[in-house]
Amino acid sequence: RKKCLLCNNVLMIVAASIMGCSKISQSFEMILIGRFMCGVSLCVPLHHQYVGEISPRKLRGFANSTSSFFWTLGKAVGQISGQRELLGSQSLWPMLMASCGLPALVQLVTLPFFPESPPYLLMQKGDQEGCKKAIRQLWGEGQHQAEIDDIMKEKATMKNTKILSVLELVKEPAFRWQLYMIVTLTATIQLCGINAV
């Protein structure tokens, strides 16, 4: 999880640099390439997953909701910064385009000091000691055996679960309504007013 987030941050910094240099290069294509790279980035779902996995069970819902809060706050700051009086002027808009690299840079610098996700260490790597160390680093000293047992139960459940490919998921009738709901929500999210907020 952590390595993937770090790679995504590098991608975002490269995209921000490309967009920031578009005016100097006099190339609108660089803006298109940079925006495409931002869209390809997996930062949002990975961030939700990592934050959810490193949070204690009683704070997991709150931690996941903070991700959405900061995402919306970032959009609001972007809208405000885009005003002509700030970074939306003729001379400063490249800085506005490149500003998406700033949070990625902060995360790229700070994330190496965070431990890997405990469920990832235990379920995918089979590293029980690493999992215990990560839990102690994240949640402090104390009895965390119940959380480790929960992760072990989840691992046992996952062994009996068949992982479907995208094509198999689309063809599976049992998941059809859930898939319709997700596609509808994703397709209409821009109509819900999040940009206005």
Structural features, described:
The chain is an all-alpha fold. It has two domains: 1-114; 162-196. It is 70% helix and 0% strand. It has helices at 2-20, 22-25, 28-40, 43-54, 60-81, 93-98, 101-110, 118-123, 128-139, 145-159, 166-171, 176-188. Helix 4 runs antiparallel to helix 5. It starts with a helix and ends in a 9-residue tail after the last helix.
Record keyword descriptors for this entry.
197 residues, mainly alpha, 2 domains, 12 helices, transmembrane, signal, MFS_dom
The value of Rg in angstroms is: 20 Å
Structural class by SSE content: mainly alpha
Q: Which geometry do the CA atoms define? A: globular
Low-confidence stretches: none
Return the average pLDDT rounded to an integer: 81
Largest sheet: none
User: What is the count of DSSP helices, taking H or I runs of 4+ residues?
Assistant: 12
The topology string of helices and strands comes to HHHHHHHHHHHH
Distance between the termini: 30 Å
Beta content comes to under 5%
Helix content: over 70%
Number of strands: 0
Supply the number of structural domains. 2
Protein name: GTR5 protein
GO molecular function: D-glucose transmembrane transporter activity
GO cellular component, one term: plasma membrane
Domain Major facilitator superfamily (MFS) profile: 1-197
Describe the structure concisely:
The protein is built from twelve helices and no strands. The chain has helices spanning 2-20, 22-25, 28-40, 43-54, 60-81, 93-98, 101-110, 118-123, 128-139, 145-159, 166-171, 176-188. 15% of the residues are buried.
Give a topology summary.
Blueprint: H1 2-20, H2 22-25, H3 28-40, H4 43-54, H5 60-81, H6 93-98, H7 101-110, H8 118-123, H9 128-139, H10 145-159, H11 166-171, H12 176-188
